[in-house]
Design brief:
This protein has three helices and no strands. It is an all-alpha fold and 85 residues long.
Protein backbone atom coordinates (compact mmCIF):
# COMPACT_ATOMS: atom_id res chain seq x y z
CA UNK A 1 0.00 0.00 0.00
CA UNK A 2 2.67 2.45 -1.07
CA UNK A 3 1.16 5.56 -2.74
CA UNK A 4 3.50 7.96 -4.53
CA UNK A 5 3.68 11.68 -3.82
CA UNK A 6 2.41 12.43 -7.32
CA UNK A 7 -0.68 10.27 -6.73
CA UNK A 8 -1.32 12.03 -3.41
CA UNK A 9 -1.10 15.42 -5.14
CA UNK A 10 -3.47 14.31 -7.90
CA UNK A 11 -6.05 13.12 -5.37
CA UNK A 12 -5.69 16.30 -3.28
CA UNK A 13 -6.05 18.64 -6.28
CA UNK A 14 -9.01 16.61 -7.50
CA UNK A 15 -10.74 16.91 -4.11
CA UNK A 16 -10.14 20.67 -4.02
CA UNK A 17 -11.44 21.00 -7.59
CA UNK A 18 -14.58 19.00 -6.86
CA UNK A 19 -15.36 21.13 -3.78
CA UNK A 20 -14.44 24.51 -5.30
CA UNK A 21 -16.94 26.59 -3.31
CA UNK A 22 -15.97 25.03 0.02
CA UNK A 23 -12.29 25.57 -0.85
CA UNK A 24 -12.98 29.21 -1.73
CA UNK A 25 -14.79 29.78 1.56
CA UNK A 26 -11.94 28.16 3.47
CA UNK A 27 -9.34 30.36 1.78
CA UNK A 28 -11.53 33.43 2.36
CA UNK A 29 -11.85 32.55 6.06
CA UNK A 30 -8.10 32.17 6.42
CA UNK A 31 -7.46 35.51 4.68
CA UNK A 32 -10.05 37.32 6.83
CA UNK A 33 -8.62 35.75 10.01
CA UNK A 34 -5.04 36.72 9.23
CA UNK A 35 -6.11 40.24 8.24
CA UNK A 36 -8.05 40.63 11.47
CA UNK A 37 -5.14 39.50 13.64
CA UNK A 38 -2.70 41.83 11.88
CA UNK A 39 -5.14 44.77 12.09
CA UNK A 40 -5.85 44.30 15.80
CA UNK A 41 -2.15 43.91 16.57
CA UNK A 42 -1.37 47.11 14.65
CA UNK A 43 -4.14 49.04 16.40
CA UNK A 44 -2.98 47.91 19.83
CA UNK A 45 0.62 48.81 19.03
CA UNK A 46 -0.46 52.26 17.84
CA UNK A 47 -2.66 52.78 20.89
CA UNK A 48 0.17 51.78 23.20
CA UNK A 49 2.57 54.15 21.45
CA UNK A 50 0.01 56.97 21.72
CA UNK A 51 -0.41 56.44 25.46
CA UNK A 52 3.35 56.32 25.98
CA UNK A 53 3.81 59.53 23.97
CA UNK A 54 1.01 61.25 25.90
CA UNK A 55 2.58 60.47 29.27
CA UNK A 56 6.05 61.41 28.03
CA UNK A 57 4.74 64.80 26.92
CA UNK A 58 2.92 65.23 30.21
CA UNK A 59 6.22 65.04 32.06
CA UNK A 60 7.07 63.94 35.57
CA UNK A 61 6.53 67.37 37.15
CA UNK A 62 3.10 68.14 35.71
CA UNK A 63 0.19 67.99 38.09
CA UNK A 64 -3.40 69.06 37.91
CA UNK A 65 -6.25 69.38 40.32
CA UNK A 66 -9.95 69.94 40.04
CA UNK A 67 -12.70 70.83 42.44
CA UNK A 68 -15.34 68.19 42.89
CA UNK A 69 -18.72 69.69 43.78
CA UNK A 70 -20.11 68.68 47.15
CA UNK A 71 -23.60 68.12 45.72
CA UNK A 72 -24.51 66.71 42.39
CA UNK A 73 -26.63 69.19 40.48
CA UNK A 74 -27.84 66.58 38.01
CA UNK A 75 -29.55 64.72 40.87
CA UNK A 76 -31.47 67.81 41.94
CA UNK A 77 -32.39 68.64 38.36
CA UNK A 78 -33.65 65.15 37.65
CA UNK A 79 -35.86 65.18 40.77
CA UNK A 80 -37.39 68.57 39.97
CA UNK A 81 -37.90 67.61 36.33
CA UNK A 82 -39.75 64.43 37.28
CA UNK A 83 -41.96 66.29 39.79
CA UNK A 84 -42.99 68.91 37.21
CA UNK A 85 -46.40 68.38 35.56
Amino acid sequence: MNISAAENMRVAVGAVWIHRFRSLLTILGIVIGITTVVTVASLLTGLRQGVVTFFQQLGPTTSSSSRVPATRTWTRLSRSASAAP
